[in-house]
């Protein structure tokens, strides 16, 4: 290593001494040895020079050493890699990979997929708009929507911002390919240059998706609120695009590690708390309420929210500029998990998708349950229920918060459906279904260990059915929290009665739908599907995918018949009770299917074998 005095420090090991004749002649072996010393690499000198003194004698004039070092450094400077050439090579390889992928695509099939997808979205938008109806809200309801609508929209943006920050702490939202992580990020190219193209793609796709969803929401709002439909769609698209840009920009800045992550997370939580306080009515204003006002521009127009739109654009641009600080280790972990997640999705393996999503979110259960001390007699009589309760006690706080938010979101959606926005029933059912997938974790763990399940003295179906009791209690508890929130917003005896009925039906069907998804086997072998005609295979896959969430949606439909009876001037409680009975019967059938599923499959297999 060169010193400031112009001399060279020699090491005690004899292999790092170079003889004067080698340095004077600048032989290839001396150059290679010096290059190894200066770079800290192993000595590449051939072993035939000397065994005791591999590089020459033990004495060497310092002038010759400096001359040799200068020659090696000059040679390295001439042979150094040009970053611009490396970037050009990267662009060429990416272009070649894109052309190869495009060449493998059947353009007719791709055009047909785009056509069918666009047609399905259009039909859904028209159907949803017609389902909402075109009867405008009353004057009092319009005033309430104009006052509280931006506050709720700001709360939604705060949740989206927090999710973006949490994704950034785990190297999100970019999901790189393995070749980009293991080669390009380690190449002599600027990381910002490598990551900018995929980051721009993520920002563009996210903003476009947000604008599309916002335009749809605006179209639905135009059915109940005064104003032109085009104005509502335009304001909704601007709101959705700004919210997506704000969330993705915050995620990129967090992932870049240029700003301390605790400060960003603290700011995100502070904005969320401010929005919650504003929704509760204890604060007249929250920062993100300004962005929520954009969605309701047709009712009240103001240019002040454009400040937050500009801030969202600035965050997205800054995130693209400093994305080069991404952690390679976190990027490798995210790339591996996302690759496995995509494969699990293609195989329709929902259980693997859930496990990989939890790993991607870094969710780790507690080492000790919060309910470890349970009565011994109770545990002896109900061992499965006791194990489930202890399992719930090991939930991380992130999962507890997620299930609580999903339950409150479902309650608010049902309150919106009670107010007349019928399509919110679908969103409420999906929220309960996703919460049920979290609550059904003890059953899923049992299914994941079939050998342990077979070793129990009880039949496997009986054990699986007993695992459904505790999740129903948890879902009822979550539903009661949502019912309390709705009662605070609208104190009424009918709300309490109809809400209690809906909580019971929604809790049982949410667990039933989640159990269908968990207990059903993943489609890893397409051999049976290959024997079926295409007319049967397609509907079979669709029914298999949509049936579990549909069961959860059925559980929240008592609110619809009660709302209809209320509109006609009748008592809403008897119709809700009447519909609740067949819903509970459906949930009971699913619970019995979980118990006797293996026996039914075995019987059908034996019958098919005997027939063949």
Q: Indicate the overall shape.
A: globular
**Helical segment count:** 27
Count of structural domains: 3
Which series of helices and strands comes N to C?
A: HHHHHHHHHHHHHHHHHHHHHHHHHHH
Rg of Cα set: 32 Å
Poorly predicted regions are 1-28, 33-60, 522-527
In whole angstroms, the N-to-C terminal distance is 81 Å
Main pleated-sheet profile: none
Number of beta strands: 0
Percent of residues in β-strands: under 5%
The chain-level structural class is mainly alpha
Average pLDDT metric = 79
The percent range for helix content is over 70%
Labels describing this entry:
mainly alpha; transmembrane; 27 helices; transmembrane helix; membrane; disordered N terminus; 3 domains; 73% helix; 612 residues
Give structural notes.
This protein has 612 residues and is mostly helical. 73% of the residues lie in helices and 0% in strands. It starts with 19 loop residues before the first helix and ends with a helix. Residues 1-28, 33-60 and 522-527 have low confidence and may be disordered.
């Amino acid at each position: 290593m060169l010193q400031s005095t112009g001399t060279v420090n020699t090491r005690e090991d004899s292999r790092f001494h170079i003889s004067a004749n080698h340095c004077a002649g600048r032989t290839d072996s001396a150059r290679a040895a010096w290059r190894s010393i200066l770079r800290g690499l192993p000595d590449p000198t051939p072993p035939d020079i000397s065994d005791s003194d591999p590089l020459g004698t033990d004495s060497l004039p310092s002038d010759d050493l400096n001359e040799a070092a200068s020659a090696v450094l000059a040679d390295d400077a001439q042979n150094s890699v040009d970053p611009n050439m490396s970037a050009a090579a990267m662009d060429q390889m990416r272009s070649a990979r894109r052309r190869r992928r495009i060449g493998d695509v059947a353009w007719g099939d791709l055009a047909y997929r785009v056509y069918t997808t666009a047609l399905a979205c259009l039909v859904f938008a028209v159907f949803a708009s017609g389902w909402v109806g075109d009867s405008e809200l009353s004057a009092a309801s319009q005033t309430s929507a104009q006052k509280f609508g931006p506050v709720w929209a700001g709360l939604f943006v705060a949740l989206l911002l927090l999710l973006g920050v949490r994704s950034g702490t785990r190297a999100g939202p970019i999901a790189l390919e393995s070749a980009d992580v293991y080669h390009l990020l380690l190449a002599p190219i600027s990381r910002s240059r490598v990551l900018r193209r995929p980051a721009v793609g993520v920002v563009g796709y996210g903003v476009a998706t947000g604008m599309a969803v916002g335009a749809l929401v605006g179209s639905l709002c135009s059915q109940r609120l005064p104003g032109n439909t085009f104005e509502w769609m335009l304001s909704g698209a601007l709101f959705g695009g700004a919210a997506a840009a704000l969330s993705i920009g915050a995620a990129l800045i967090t992932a870049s590690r240029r700003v301390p992550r605790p400060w960003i997370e603290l700011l995100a939580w502070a904005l969320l708390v401010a929005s919650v306080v504003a929704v509760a009515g204890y604060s007249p204003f929250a920062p993100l309420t300004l962005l929520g006002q954009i969605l309701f521009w047709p009712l009240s127009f103001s240019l002040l929210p454009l400040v937050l739109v500009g801030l969202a654009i600035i965050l997205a641009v800054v995130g693209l500029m400093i994305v080069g600080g991404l952690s390679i280790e976190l990027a490798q972990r995210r790339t591996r998990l996302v690759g496995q997640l995509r494969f699990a999705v293609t195989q329709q393996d929902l259980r693997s998708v859930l496990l990989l999503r939890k790993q991607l979110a870094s969710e780790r259960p507690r080492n000790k349950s919060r309910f470890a001390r349970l009565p011994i007699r109770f545990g002896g009589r109900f061992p499965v229920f006791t194990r489930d309760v202890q399992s719930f006690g090991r939930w991380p706080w992130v999962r507890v918060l997620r299930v609580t938010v999903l339950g409150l979101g479902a309650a608010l959606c049902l309150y919106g459906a009670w107010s007349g926005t019928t399509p919110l029933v679908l969103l409420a059912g999906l929220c309960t279904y996703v919460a049920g997938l979290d609550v059904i974790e003890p059953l899923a763990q049992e299914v994941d260990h079939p050998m342990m399940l077979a070793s129990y003295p009880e039949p496997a179906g009986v054990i699986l059915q007993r695992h459904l009791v505790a999740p129903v209690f948890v879902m009822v508890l979550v539903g009661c929290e949502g019912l309390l929130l709705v009662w605070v917003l609208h104190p009424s005896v009918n709300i309490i009665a109809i809400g209690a009925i809906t909580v019971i039906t929604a809790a049982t069907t949410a667990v039933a739908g989640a159990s269908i998804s968990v207990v059903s086997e993943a489609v890893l072998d397409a051999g049976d599907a290959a024997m079926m005609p295409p007319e049967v295979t397609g509907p079979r896959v669709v029914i298999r995918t949509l049936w579990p969430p549909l069961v959860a949606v059925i559980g929240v439909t008592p609110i619809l018949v009660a709302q209809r009876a209320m509109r006609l001037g009748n008592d809403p409680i008897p119709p809700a009770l009447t519909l609740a009975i067949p819903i509970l019967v459906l949930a009971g059938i699913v619970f019995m299917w979980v118990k006797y599923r293996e026996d039914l499959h075995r019987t059908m297999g034996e019958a098919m074998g005997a027939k063949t």
